[in-house]
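Handout, section 3.2

Students often ask what a structure token actually looks like in practice. Rather than define it abstractly, here is a full record for Integrase catalytic domain-containing protein. The first block is the sequence as you would receive it.
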Amino acid sequence: MFVKEVVRLHGFPKSIVSDRDSIFLSSFWSELFKLAGTQLRYSTAYHPQSVGQTEVVNRCLETYLTCITWKKPKEWTKWLPRAEYWYNTNYHISLKQTPYQALYGQEPQPIVKGDVVRTANDEVSRLTAERNGMLAELKENLAIAQNKMKQQADKHWREMKLEVGEKVFLKIQPYKLQSLAKRINQKLSPRFYGPFEIIEKVNAVAFKLKLPDDCLIHPVFHISLLKKVLASDTCCQPLPKCLSENWELLVKPEKVVDTREGTDGRTEVLIHWEDLPEFERSWEDAQVLKTVSRLQA
């Protein structure tokens, strides 16, 4: 698919922004892109919007296409080529040009020059009028999509300036506690860990932190996950040792703290998990825990 849709038309890219998908992290793709001179750039940890804001563009396109399909539920496939053309030939503030010009270095020739209303051929006149109507609707839909994205972004925007050498708390929310038992205990309340020192400013919204040497997670984080340390005597909350690179707690039961009878009559045990504090203890089905532990042994 990559060769068919990208390489065939544009050749191998200079760089690719990935959401740290296992495909792009594999040794095969890493070696192939290395030989091709393609730089792999991964999204920041626990922030799928990524440094390049790829998903922001995707959401804008989804809203754009939703407007089209909602108004033309039976004809939306016919609109897709024109929708793509209008989007790629529309001026983008972030690029300071159209995507078409950014890719090919020049603007495309217009499909029809000028606003032609009548021609010598009735069919051409009909198609031209239809084209003008479609482009007007597409222009309106794109403006609606861009305005919705701006309103959504403004709701969550907060201005915070961070510099190298400053210390910040890292927000993890939420993470999964992958227990050995059937039930998964999820701690949904956000927590701040740290503080950690900023060792590199990747760009205005992404920062690299100095994490413990045995930490598996990627050290670059979006600014929305950081909180500036304002006091010098703040308490320290270290990251869990069992936190995987996918932000999951890979835990093992350390001891049984208590027992009780569950609502269904089954015996439940209160487990203290290895390398986790007391507040992470959870009630698990005793029989399921024994079965899974035996399989893991």
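Discussion prompt for tutorial groups: The CA atoms of residues 27 and 218 lie 18 Å apart. How would you have guessed this from the sequence alone?
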